[in-house]
Amino acid sequence: MFSEALNLDITRTALDQVFFQNFEYDMNYPGVATANTSAIFKQIETEHSAWIQSINKGSGLFPIVGETQTVPTQVPRVANKQTNLIKDFASSIEISKDLFDDNMHGVWAKDVADFATVARITQDQYAFGIFRNAFTTTLTADGVPFISASHPLIGGGIVSNLIPSPSQLSTNTFNQGIVLLRQQKNQAGVPMGNVPCVLLVPSALFKQAIEITESALLSDSNTNAINVFRSAYGITVYTSIFMDANQGGSDTAWFLLARNHGVTRVIRQGIQTALRSWEYSNNRTYLYQANFRETTFVADYGGAVGALGY
After folding, report:
1. Backbone angles phi, psi at 168, to 5 degrees
2. Which of 171, 178, 258 shows the shortest CA–CA distance to 222?
3. Where in the chain are the domains?
4. What is the DSSP letter of 86?
5. Do you find a cis peptide bond into 30, omega within 30 degrees of 0?
6. CA distance 212 to 75
């Protein structure tokens, strides 16, 4: 016998098939970054409602010791405690029973496909807020904006991960960024020799970024000089529309990331869906909802440099 429970399962299966096909759809365009791009967001799963951590000062350089000299002891320190609460994202759509039963012109399938796409876009829009606000309200655990000329070190002193103006993206400023990243000191004041692996840019700079990193010859020179950036570092260029000026970001800002950067995405719960059957409504509608729980943050300046681009 065709039961109500069976009908609900069939309906949810049909909706979920459309939803997840579109939510997990990868545009597969070269260089298009999403919240799931592991080179930009360190992906961590958690079972808690908050992610709490402190920044480790680390050890200094190894001293030279004599043959029988007592080995010096360095005491690691932690400071700058940071708590990041997991955010809960949820939304729903109503689909009338008649619309679902008839599905004229695939209307309900298009609605669910759009619902899934918006869910994926929500993840990206939220995640890239770190870079949209990198010079202002995205704070590291030291209370300073992510990209700043004045990060206080736990071991004493100040370090900058801001490429000084004028900093419009060019081969010269790109090289300045590489040098700044290479010479960057950790919390103990030790230069880490970071190697850049990602150049992250808004849409307006994507073409220029590709030319700088992948052209056989220097893109902004008439001397036929070999483009050393192409072979020396193997830098991957990424872009996201959610860094653009029309999304509240900047069309000129750009970032260099090393593999040890601290930009993190903590996932408490991946995308889940649920369906309320029309029998439990007062207007014969299905209620299809989806939710996910996660947060993004950057605890430390290390492994990243950025430029305002002007």
Report:
1. -55, 140
2. 171
3. 4-52+82-307
4. P
5. no
6. 43
**Domain 4-52+82-307, CATH number (from 3.40.50, 1.10.10, 3.30.1330, 3.90.1690):** 3.90.1690
Instruction: Name the nearest CA neighbour of 131 among 27, 212, 238.
Output: 238
Cβ contacts of residue 50 below 8 Å, gap of 6+?
83, 84, 85, 86
Q: What is the token pair recorded at 298?
A: 């950057």
- How far apart are the C-alpha atoms of 115 and 77, rounded to whole Å? 47
Express each pLDDT in 25-66 by its tens digit: 765 677 999 999 999 999 999 999 999 988 888 778 888 889
pTM: 0.89
Segment (H or E) for 126: helix 107-127
Place of tokens 């909802």: 289
Q: Rg of the Cα trace of the chain?
A: 24
Between CA 241 and CA 125 the distance in angstroms is 9
Size of the chain in residues: 310
How far is it, in rounded angstroms, from Cα 214 to Cα 211? 5
Q: What are phi and psi of 187, to 5 degrees?
A: -65, -20
